[in-house]
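Notes from the 1:1 (GR / supervisor)

We went over the backlog. Supervisor wanted to see one worked example end to end before approving the batch request, so GR pasted a single chain during the call. The sequence is below; no edits were made to it. Supervisor asked that the structure be written out right there so they could see what the output format looks like.
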Amino acid sequence: MINFNVPPYTGKELDYIRECVEAQKICGDGAYTKKCNSWLEEKTGASKCLLTTSCTHATEMAALLADIKEGDEVIMPSYTFVSTADAFVLRGAVPVFVDIRPDTMNIDEQKIEAAVTAKTKAIVPVHYAGVSCEMDTIMDIAKRHSLIVIEDAAQGVMSSYKGKALGAIGDMGCYSFHETKNYSMGEGGALILRDERYIEDAEIIREKGTDRSRFFRGQVDKYTWVDKGSSYLPSDMNAAYLYAQLELADEINERRLEIWNTYYRELGELKDAGKIELPVIPEGCDHNAHMFYIKAADFEERTKLITFLKENGILSVFHYIPLHSAPAGKRFGRFSGEDEYTTKESERLTRLPMYYSLTEEENMYIIKKVKEFYGFS
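Structure output shown during the call:
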């Protein structure tokens, strides 16, 4: 059976974890956490990167830093993971869902401004599949309406938009290092801060509401509870696992792009024949091959395709159920405008296996079976 996902592993992970154990420093903000933070800051050009226990928690931190309050509205796509909305619902805010573009599955930047009201506090673009949203337009809207931009770049590590790293374009960005992502620490994430003015408050929130970071820098002679916060620090053992992959980030990225490009090239004849649709990468977007998906004609055809592939030893999956159609989405949020593409396109999309250790033989076998399903040999 070819799995849908296999977590990345480079070979040094256990050695680095062992170092943590032998150094008797396995809690948060140890040597490997600092190495990961520094790597991310250098790679993104951000003012500060703070490793967290998950991308969900990074987004919760962003909501706190943005001072999201009861009754505020936050604009986002409905086609995203629940954490994108949950982080703001926890603060009492209303997620306002906007339709997506059918080409990239990203929020339709042309429909954002119509969703802005006097209660709008932030825009949360989600970079689906590691392909950037149209950030110039989004940043312009945010500037004109004095809104905060929090990038959900869970899938966007190593991706960029016009030369700028995803996650470091808006006011804040959130990464995921879940086991399904290109680089993994099992469960984990990072908060990316473009603006230095957020750094001290972010450290306090992350350190359970204390000024512990200032204490360790020698800025205060003792640390104490100074504001609201929680425990968002990952174990240094998790960071050690991640750092082994960040050291080989370019190699992992190049291999994933090879797999992605093979899918795209070899399935091109199905696209040309009008059987399927393939991902679109807009000009100015450099993606990280986080996923490869195809779009079937409709929900029924997709279901048959997934079943056929499973019968042939291949695990493929569909993705998000639009949040506005979920029970909690109906209770906590609202959809702005018409759902022209969100539901329709989500019901057509099928994700094919995509991971660092996928072999060329497996890659070609998957392609062969997709073609076979559509009557191509």
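Supervisor's comment: The chain is about 35% helix and 15% strand.
Batch request approved.
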